[in-house]
Design brief:
This protein is of the alpha/beta class. The protein has helices at about 40-60, 65-80, 80-90, 95-115, 115-120, 155-165, 180-190, 205-215, 230-240, 265-275, 300-305, 325-340, 375-380, 395-405, 420-430, 465-470, and strands at about 5-10, 10-15, 20-25, 30-35, 125-130, 130-140, 145, 170-175, 200, 220-225, 245-250, 255, 285-290, 345-350, 365-370, 385-395, 410, 410-415, 435, 450-455, 455, 470-480. The protein folds into 2 domains: about 5-250 and about 450-480, Aldehyde Dehydrogenase, Chain A, domain 1 (3-Layer(aba) Sandwich), CATH 3.40.605.10; about 255-405 and about 410-435, 3-Layer(aba) Sandwich (Aldehyde Dehydrogenase, Chain A, domain 2). Helix 3 (about 80-90) runs antiparallel to helix 7 (about 180-190). The termini are far apart.
Length: about 500
């Protein structure tokens, strides 16, 4: 068995006693780099029980102490930033530059977790009635859980457990079975920062392990990022078991290109936003809506896309890496063929891409479609590959209507030089995250990641103030004290110890 990945239970990195193991592979070569255990029920129970026990003491730790843990943690993450990125690159195939960005966006959330005290402040009104005051307190919930995807193995776990733990909860993380190594390294650094035993647990596995977490009565919240069908399942099962759930699902993100936009900026941003990270990100731009005269820019867009190519993680000339698995590659190939069969014009076909020296990698080259309509599967489905489809519109109003008909609402952007057009777009579009001359409008962590409609199931979103509310509950106290009860007299002493 090659490089067995441990579990983290009760503060101990331990080998599982399971007989069911999965292979972790390098997507650039498909060589096995580690063996992953599917945790036994007894091990899952031990992890949850340890988190529940740790909560009984952790919830009483002073807020400044929790914040200082996060300060130490973000310092260690920065110190080990490059080595974390290398680990991440080897299990995801991401280029080193992309992997560094993945790690850094996670660090930004940890920095916000260090500001937890100001986000845990309640409210007070004095004299709501005669001699009666009312005030609220923000308190942690208990054991929280995160189920994370393959495409951002540093950023998305760091969306979850630092804020939950800083708010006074404990946490059980189940990372993607395809990319467990980064999460384990994050946990090692968290322990090195001084995290108490049991505050963070890590378990591994597939659906059976997820179902265990969804059904366990001790777990109070579920955070999930992944595909639409799984997000729906997580939300339904989690809420049926009376848990608070935030489930981030699929996307079909559109960029509206107005004819008055800066053409060079549009093309550069559109290429990077569509094929960057091999298109394997829920905020990738996978649809360009060319309005009016912008339709004439298609040949230049095609030429720009044809110049970018995938490659190994340490190839400084590579624009992006491989897809995560042969199955992912086959799915993208199938959708490209369906687009051709359904009448779209395949301007660039990336199915025959090869990378020198890496013949077994899951490579797909940049792929561009024109002549696409909203009935085609390449428009309706989230491709999750380096594929951009182009639609045309005669007006901004038509573009807005097109986007609002789409079932997803994760992100969108408009490129224009006209402020009135931008304002109309941001006001009327029914999408949670909007970019104006910004292709991928992922907010910094003092805001929240606010996907809408079919891209999100739940009420409170990831990171920012909404995440703090997700991981906490509000207690409201109404207090009355009577003047007659104030002690008096010469023998009155006050013990301040």
């Amino acid at each position: 068995m090659l490089n067995p990945v441990p579990l983290l239970i009760d503060g101990e990195f331990r080998q599982s006693a399971t007989t069911e193991w999965l292979e972790v592979t390098n997507p650039a070569t498909n060589e096995v780099i580690a063996s992953l255990p599917c945790a036994r029920d007894e091990e899952m129970q031990q992890a949850v029980a340890s988190a529940a026990e740790a909560f009984q003491t952790w919830k009483h730790v002073a807020l400044p102490e929790r914040a200082r843990l996060m300060l130490r943690y973000q310092h260690l993450l920065k110190e080990h930033h490059d080595s974390l990125a290398q680990t991440l690159s080897q299990e995801t195939g991401k280029t080193l530059a992309d992997a560094k960005g993945d790690v850094w966006r996670g660090i930004e959330v940890v920095e916000q977790a260090a500001n937890i005290a100001s986000n845990m402040m309640g409210e007070m009104v004095e004299n709501v009635a005669t001699d009666i005051d009312t005030y609220s307190m923000i308190q942690p919930l208990g054991v929280c859980c995160g189920i994370t995807p393959f495409n951002f193995p540093a950023m998305i776990p760091l969306w979850m457990f630092p804020l939950a733990i800083a708010a006074g909860n404990t946490f059980v993380l189940k990372p993607s079975e395809q990319v467990p190594l980064t999460s384990m390294r994050l946990a090692e650094l968290f322990a090195q920062a001084g995290a108490p035993k049991g505050v963070l647990q890590i378990v591994h596995g597939r659906k059976a392990q997820v179902d265990f977490l969804l059904q366990h009565p001790e777990i109070k919240t579920i955070s999930f990022v992944g595909s639409v069908k799984v997000a729906q399942y997580i939300y339904q099962q989690g809420t049926q078991h009376f848990k608070r759930v935030q489930a981030f699902a699929g996307a079909k993100n559109h960029m509206v290109v107005m004819p008055d936009a800066n053409k060079d900026q549009v093309i550069n941003n559109l290429v990077g936003a569509s094929v960057g990270a091999a298109g394997q990100r829920c905020m990738a731009i996978s649809v360009a809506v060319l309005v009016g005269g912008a339709k004439a820019w298609l040949p230049e867009l095609k030429a720009a896309m044809s110049r970018v190519q995938p490659g190994a993680w340490n190839d400084s000339n590579a624009a992006y890496g491989p897809l995560i698995s042969p199955q992912a590659k086959e799915r993208v190939h199938r959708l490209i063929q369906e687009g051709i069969d359904q009448g779209a014009v395949c301007e660039l076909d990336g199915r025959h891409c090869q990378v020198a020296g890496l013949p077994n990698g899951n490579w797909v080259g940049p792929t561009l479609f024109s002549g696409v309509n909203t009935e085609m599967s390449i428009y309706r489905e989230e491709i999750f590959g380096p594929v951009l489809v182009c639609l045309e519109a005669d007006s901004l109003e038509e573009a807005i209507e097109l986007i609002n008909r789409n079932p997803y609402g994760n992100g969108t952007s408009i490129f224009t030089a006209n402020g009135a057009a931008a304002r109309k777009f941001q006001h009327e579009i029914q999408v949670g995250q909007v970019g104006i001359n910004v292709p991928i409008p992922v907010p910094l962590p003092f805001f929240s990641f606010t996907g809408w409609r079919g891209s999100f199931y739940g009420d409170l979103h990831a990171y920012g103030k909404q995440a703090v509310r997700f991981f906490t509950e509000t207690k409201t106290v109404t207090a009355r004290w009577f003047d007659d009860d104030i002690p008096s007299g010469p023998n009155l002493t006050i013990n301040l110890r």
